[in-house]
Amino acid sequence: MVNITITPEDQNRKEKILEIHLQLFSILRDKLPPELKGQTKIQLVEGSTLKDLLIELAIDRRVAISVNDVQERDHSRTLADGDEVKIFTSVSGG
Amino acid sequence: MAHGYHGKILHVNLTAGEFAVEEPGEDFYRKYLGGSALALYYLLKDMPPGADPLEPENILVLALSVVTGASISGQSRLTAAAKSPLTGAIGDSQGGGFFPAELKNAGFDAVVVKGKSPKPVYLWIHDGEYELRDAAHIWGSITGVAEQTIREELGDKKIEVMQIGPAGENAVRFAGIFSNSNRANGRTGMGAVMGSKNLKAVAVRGKIRPSIADKTRLSTLAKWGAANLSDSDIAGLAKYGTNETTGANQNSGTLPTYNYNSGVFDGWEKIDGPTMYDTVLKGAAEGKQDREGRDTCYACTVRCKRVVEIQEGPYKVDPTYGGPEYETTSTFGSYCAIDDLAAICKANEICNQYGMDTISCGATISWAYEAFNEGKLTPEDTDGLDLSWGNAESMVKLTEKIARREGFGDLLAEGSERAAKSIGRGTEAYLITFKGQEAPAHMPRVKRSLAVIYAVNPFGADHQSHEHDPVIEDDFEYYEERLGALGFNARVETHALNREKMRFTVATQRLYSAMDSLNLCQFVYGSTWQLYGPDDIVELVQAVTGWEDFSYADIEKVGERRINMMRMFNAREGFDRRQDLIPEKLFKPLKGGASDGWKLDKDEVEGALDTYFELSGWDVKSGIPTPEKLEELGLAWIVK
Ligand code: SF4
Questions:
Q1: How much of chain B, in percent, has pLDDT values that exceed 90?
Q2: Which of B87, B117, B274, B394 counts the highest number of beta carbons within 10 A?
Q3: Tell me: domain B9-205, CATH 3.60.9.10, correct?
Q4: How distant, in Å, are the alpha carbons of B537, B543, B555, B591, B626 from that of B534?
Q5: Which residue of A has its CA nearest to B273?
């Protein structure tokens, strides 16, 4: 399970802290305590990207992401305070 | 000495009640590997062109591969093939469970069924012996009852039964063949063919396991898979079933909704894998769903199959009949804008009891929903049923009416294309059929190589006949190694339908085609995200058969051979490029979500088809394999 509160390493730095509403789906739910059902709020330093978020969550495989309910394929996107991020895993068949 | 297979094919002539056992040599197995390619061999050799799919001259082949029954995940699968009563083209359907491995243990690699029995019978195969037994007492029974009756009368609870339900007896054109009362060889109407032969079931049991050439190598490969499952891309599939993909499809606008008019569904979270896991899987209330609510196929460590139990409310569901796949929650769910999970599970149960393909059944119902909502059908047509979008009760009722061929259900049992022709009133515009088969829940307007594959695939729209686009688009970085080994070293632009995308389409089509001949599960084996990659398939075949010189080139060749055989079967039936059509609806824009405005472009698709045929080595104008290509593949005998 990952540490879900990402605190800036250096509290003296002047970066603003962003609060992100995170929702993890499918097997990614298991990264959070079960009672959260995949939903939590996390803090990131200003300037963090989706890629940074994935690294913090230790997600290193193919995922599908939406930010504020719009699909986002570009993982270099910079996040903003209050953003709602949803992360899905996916296979193709079925 | 043969390893992995028996070298024995059982031929059954139901008209005369006669049997023959053929023993083809190793060359035959190396050329076709089993499954679909093996089945095609008999269909092309022994069936006259122009045969009526529901008359005795049609041939039904149930075929395993050289690796079926080996102790490793994802190998217990079977091909059912015949001329399709739904499409009039080749019919081909893959399914898993325990029956395939048990048929192997009973002593045969395949069963070729010809003719028609004068009365209902079932075929009992055990330890190399075989007989036809009376099935009058189970004709008309739903699958769970017939299966139990057969096990009881033969006195062995471990007998595996593959059978048709009442829908197959009633010649519903998309009736399937079912084992375990919940595993479907669902597509292309193979159950209707079996029913037309008065063959209710095949029961198998045995202890004749073929030897394995190198047990240590096989067990090393099997253990590697088991150890790596939880850290693989299919970990979510294991826990949440194929339904785990609902959310990702919603996100990318590829969840077919309102009969393929939209790619997003507001109610998606009510019908997705995690919701099923939390609510309807057997044992969910006590947190025991991982143990009780998941099932598997023989020797498979993944355990992706769903077992649903609902004891309260209007839709009670018996766990005997498993649970819905992603395809099923989509066709009965988002296609019809229905978010009532219990109702969807009920429709799935009815399909498994009566023996119907949930894709064609749900999609045919969604065609009717669109026609009703557009005012082209009225309650007078629908036996008074209100087919407004989202009406779950009517969907469940209609599913049962189709299985029984009652009233409006009798028309829908013909499939949506025949129903639209019969009704007229412009309802053809609502079809999502390819060669007459309804499209599964993967969106060609976004994953655009699917448009080409749905169109060219000889048995109609199919989502498991090649690898879908995202692995070579946005997700390329995760699969560079496996794709590199297949000859793809750079990503392709997202949504492109260019030459490189077609090269990827043809290459992965050959791989998936070979896997349908090796009868391998496409969640466990495949090109990229699956547990095992192409090299592992080579390792598997070598370890089981002892064919040390077997290579990936052999896999490509068999895959290509099978596709050419299917195209040639269709050519004999009058099919050519003119039938490789895409329904008009897909040239109209999707509405809402990430795929808003997306549509196919006719010129672009025609160009991609040209490239596909060229890369396949076929005549570009007709889409038919050339004599040179057939010669190259050792298939010149088809036209002689
Ligand atoms: S992955 Fe699922 S469908 Fe495939 S063999 Fe295993 S249990 Fe069966």
A1: 100
A2: B87
A3: yes
A4: 5, 14, 9, 38, 28
A5: A26
Atom of ligand 1 nearest to the CA of B77: 5
pLDDT exceeds 60 at position B89:
yes
Ligand 1: nearest atom to the Cα of B523: 1
d(CA B610, CA B616): 10
> What's residue B576's pLDDT?
98
Q: Where are the beta strands (DSSP E) in B404-521?
A: 433-434, 437-438
State residue A7's pLDDT score.
Answer: 52
| Identity of the residue in A29, A62, A71 whose CB atom sits nearest the CB atom of B252 | A71
pLDDT confidence bin for A34, thresholds 50/70/90: confident
CATH number of this structure's domain B449-581+601-639, picked from the four choices 3.30.70.260, 3.50.30.50, 2.40.37.10, 1.10.599.10: 1.10.599.10
Residues of chain A found within 8 Å of residue B593, distances taken between Cβ atoms = 71
Task: Tell me which residue has tokens 């898979």.
Answer: B225
Testing ligand 1's pocket by substitution, the residue of B230, B305, B464, B515 carrying the most ligand atoms inside 8 A of its CB is B305
What is the SS3 string spanning B602-613? HHHHHHHHHHHH
Mark yes or no for CB contact A65/B251 under 8 Å.
yes
CB atoms within 10 A of CB B491: 18
Distance between start and end Cα atoms, chain B: 32
- What is B241-438's CATH topology? 1.10.569
pLDDT recorded at residue B184: 98
Task: Give A-chain residues touching B494 at CB under 8 angstroms.
Answer: 73
| Domain definitions of chain A by residue range | 17-89
Fold type of domain A17-89:
Ubiquitin-like (UB roll) (3.10.20)
Q: Look at residue B502 and tell me whether its pLDDT is greater than 60.
A: yes
pLDDT (average), residues B359-369: 98
pLDDT tens per residue, range B596-627: 999 999 999 999 999 999 999 999 999 999 99
Domain limits of chain B? Answer: 9-205, 241-438, 449-581+601-639
Q: What is the DSSP string of A26-75?
A: GGGGGGS-GGGTTEEEEEEETT-BHHHHHHHTT--S--EEEETTEE---T
Q: How confident is the model at residue B230 (pLDDT cuts 50, 70, 90)?
A: very high
A92 contacts in chain B (CB < 8 Å): 245, 442, 463, 467-468, 470-471, 529
Position A12 confidence tier, pLDDT thresholds 50, 70, 90: low
